[in-house]
Amino acid sequence: MKTYPIGTPGTPWGEAERAEWRALQRRQRSYEADVLIVIERLRSRFDVQKYGELNYGDERYPLMAIRSRDWRDELPVVLVTGGVHGYETSGVHGALQFVEQHAADYAGRVNLLVSPCVSPWAFERIHRWNANAVDPNRSFRQNSPAEESAALLQLMAPVRERVLLHIDLHETTDTDETEFRPALAARDGQPFEPCGIPDGFYLVDDSESPQPGFQQAVIEAVEKVTHIAPADDNGEIIGSPVVAKGVIQYPLTELGLCAGITSARYKTTTEVYPDSPNATPEQCNAAQVAAVCAAMDYALAHR
């Protein structure tokens, strides 16, 4: 099997290997053009908050959140996050598209908080990790090694107990198998074990507090937009048992995943498959939007 080009097989990376990896990363798109300009356009209808700033070398990335203008303490909080993994494009564009097209429908019913691009350095480089080769989506814990994760945790601290719903928008891509999982194995000095990529949309529920009715409501809405990933021959998706159509479970908080950062009754991580021959970028964005709307509708109806 081909080995990853950085590091020595079986030996975890040190700073030299991380620096070598970082030097290979190239800016391929613009956080300012694709995200910040869209957020600026929303200022006329929503409050916009800078909740942190990343400083990587001479590059500065403001971390931005969009908030309901009619914020009222007696209303439940809904959190929508995207771009925790910067390469997962529809999570970012889907979150922004939801705000532009549908957020106003929930005015006066919820306090909406949207962080559409949690990891902007990685967004520009179409990568999973931040500049220090750290995965933000395994780093949502106290004393986080990822600044992106620590900033979001700090943003949510005052309201984390009041969150009714948190939906975290992700993708599973072919490059998970060709680049990101091999890189992870090399970084950690572990052998790479192929897992396979599911063809279709699926959800990750919280194994510590599952909400099967909620998850299925989201699946049913998304199925009108794009296809749902089937279980493999082992009854699994990416190595986890399928507990219902298009649904697997992880212990979200234990693993340091973004969807586990609040006390929300309703939590889910979406996984869109953009590399399917049966899905377009527009469908992928629309699937994320449909998931957010269905999640909000269910949560509000079953408070």
UniProtKB/TrEMBL annotation:
<keyword id="KW-0862">Zinc</keyword>
<dbReference type="GO" id="GO:0006508">
    <property type="term" value="P:proteolysis"/>
</dbReference>
<keyword id="KW-0479">Metal-binding</keyword>
<feature type="domain" description="Peptidase M14">
    <location>
        <begin position="27"/>
        <end position="303"/>
    </location>
</feature>
<dbReference type="GO" id="GO:0008270">
    <property type="term" value="F:zinc ion binding"/>
</dbReference>
<comment type="similarity">
    <text>Belongs to the peptidase M14 family.</text>
</comment>
<dbReference type="Pfam" id="PF24827">
    <property type="entry name" value="AstE_AspA_cat"/>
</dbReference>
<keyword id="KW-0378">Hydrolase</keyword>
<dbReference type="GO" id="GO:0016788">
    <property type="term" value="F:hydrolase activity, acting on ester bonds"/>
</dbReference>
<dbReference type="GO" id="GO:0004181">
    <property type="term" value="F:metallocarboxypeptidase activity"/>
</dbReference>
<dbReference type="InterPro" id="IPR000834">
    <property type="entry name" value="Peptidase_M14"/>
</dbReference>
<dbReference type="InterPro" id="IPR055438">
    <property type="entry name" value="AstE_AspA_cat"/>
</dbReference>
<protein>
    <submittedName>
        <fullName>Peptidase</fullName>
    </submittedName>
</protein>
